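Annex B. Sample input.
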Amino acid sequence: MDDYKNRSYGAVGIGMKGKIGIVVVDYQLAFTDPKYPLGGAPLVMRGLENTARLLKIARAHNVPVATCFTAYKCERDMPYWKVAAVRDQFRLDHPSSALDPLIYDENYDVVVCKSGPSIFFQTPVVPYFIKEGVETIIVTGCNTSGCIRASTIDSFQWGFRTVVPEDCVGDIEEGPHRDNLRDVARRYADVSSADEVIAYIKQSTS
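Annex B, continued. Sample output.
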């Protein structure tokens, strides 16, 4: 029995409509390079590869892309993170703060440094998408249970249609990845795939 479904959670689909924009959340070396404590989780690397595939098509069709990384000047500049690796390494001058070259195009992407979980919190990403006439936000990046969930909820709260391609996001463990996607799909967003978003881009911009 699915009591959420019986109480109408997830009963209304959102769908992709109008112009889309893509956010790429925290695909920085801290999460993608296995030499770092948080780096190289298999689900994150799968998400990185599928996001790169999606972005190649998106850029070819002039889709707006906003990319972010998380970093601070010093520990005093940080929120009260409970993750030791964040406190130790997420600094502006640390090499792990660099965006992974697989997903970053410095000549195309709008890049922001964020201080909290959501790419939208105290950054210019929302005004950028409003200026671009975006109606639907595609959320990619890591980690699903943290910054992806926060960014998805903020996208919803800003009034955007919100879609999360399951294979473009990742987490340290599969359980939290699946649980959080299931939960946001009940309330705030559609869970889709890279192939479905690519098909929409090609159809809507042809």
